[in-house]
Amino acid sequence: MNLFAWIAAVIFFLQLPNPLFWLVVHPLAHFWRGRMRTAYITAVGVAWGAVTALLITFHGEIFRGEVPGKTEIGIGLLLIAFDLWLFGKVHRDLGTSRLIGKTEISGGGEVARTGIYSYIRHPRYAGMIASVAGACLLSATRLTWDVVVVWLLLVATVIALEERELRVRFGTAYEEYCQRVPRFLPLRLLARRK
Questions:
Q1: Nearest-angstrom CA–CA distance, 172 and 154
Q2: Higher pLDDT, 165 or 19
Q3: What is the CATH number of domain 3-192?
Q4: What would the DSSP string read from start to end of the chain?
Q5: Under 8 Å CB-to-CB from 113, ≥6 apart: which residues?
Q6: Are 2 and 67 in contact (CB under 8 A)?
Q7: Angle, nearest 10°, between helix axes 172-180 and 142-170?
Q8: Which of 162, 146, 174 is nearest to 21 (CA)?
Q9: Predicted confidence band at 188 (pLDDT cuts at 50, 70, 90)?
Q10: How far apart are CA 121 and CA 95, in angstroms?
Q11: Which of 74, 76, 109, 124 could form a disulfide with 134 if both were Cys (CB 3.0 to 4.6 A apart)?
């Protein structure tokens, strides 16, 4: 494997399990309350175990041997860098505990409305989508794009579950937030500022 395939492998390892993790946590949030350690062990084991097994099993089909073109490298690395930038913003605005889902499992917290969350509701998912697309450009095999289509469906499902859980937990406060702040692209907010 070349350097760019390794970068893609790291991104896939870090990002592809995330919707699986949240599919274990969000639908069962009430069940996990009071069982935080068990929730994390179960969710991490299911998510990273499954993705690691698939990456190892299909590594020959996922990662090509030749180096991608300069355009693919440039765009791919730029998308990954964008995710790192967004991740830094999210971490600054939420902190580690909220970022890893302790508030979902504990049932606490409040609606994040400042920083990057004043522009878009799901910056972490937007960043993950960007870096996974970047990793696909770096590995550039048909299978990676096929996997990402399924992964995007999982991400959409997780977002719907997360928003449903947030509406239950925060009620009208979250509903009002959704009315003001778009999911991914801050176009509506940028248009208002002109």
A1: 26
A2: 19
A3: 1.20.120
A4: --HHHHHHHHHHHHHTHHHHHHHHHGGGHHHHTT-HHHHHHHHHHHHHHHHHHHHHHTHHHHS-SSPPPHHHHHHHHHHHHHHHHHHHHHHHHH-HHHHTTHHHHHT------SGGGGT-S-HHHHHHHHHHHHHHHHH--HHHHHHHHHHHHHHHHHHHHHHHHHHHHHTHHHHHHHHHS-SS-THHHHHHT-
A5: 177, 181
A6: yes
A7: 130
A8: 162
A9: low
A10: 16
A11: 76
User: 23: which 2 tokens?
Assistant: 């599919």
Six-digit token pair at 59? 């590594």
Would you kindly state where each structural domain of the chain is located, as residue ranges? 3-192
**Which residue would you say has higher pLDDT here, 170 or 140?**
170
pLDDT in tens, 96-133: 877 777 777 777 778 888 899 989 999 999 999 999 99
Structure tokens of 174?
Answer: 């979250």
